[in-house]
Design goal:
elongated, mainly alpha, single chain, 4 helices
Length: about 140
């Protein structure tokens, strides 16, 4: 069974589009991780020490999952053109973290492999653990 040239081109275009979307996602993940470090350095006030420690712990967890996710992407898709967007420290950092969790949830369809979904689970678990600590431990 052979594929027509037209079908092969469509698959190649879809794959390139998929690589581009995944590259954008990975850049946003790097930016989010860096954003957490900016928050970590800037947090003050009541509960700031607990937040400072919680952010450090989350950053470590998220960086490990990020590394696994990106390396898996390179293994499956080849070289990726990852660009990291400008990173700013949000005023409402809890809301920003919640929104990024939702963003990640909507990116799941980019990955069909169960083991990649598992890495995303680990990443999102790190975010949920951080949110628990920021909201409940002061």
């Amino acid at each position: 069974m052979t594929m027509s040239t037209q079908t092969t081109k469509k698959v190649a275009v879809r794959r390139e589009s998929e690589k581009e979307e995944i590259s954008i996602l990975f850049g946003k993940i790097f930016s989010f991780n860096s954003c957490l470090k900016l928050i970590h350095w800037h947090v003050t006030g009541k509960g700031s020490y607990a937040a400072h420690l919680s952010l450090d712990q989350a950053i470590e967890t998220l960086l490990g999952a990020t590394d696994r996710l990106v390396e898996t992407g390179y293994a499956a898709l080849g070289d990726l053109d990852i660009v990291i967007p400008e990173t700013k420290r949000p005023d409402n950092y809890v809301g920003h973290i919640e929104a990024f969790y939702e963003y990640m949830e909507h990116q799941r369809p980019l990955f069909s492999e169960v083991f990649v979904q598992s890495i995303i689970d680990d990443y999102q678990e790190g975010i949920q653990q951080l949110l628990f600590r920021l909201k409940r431990l002061q």
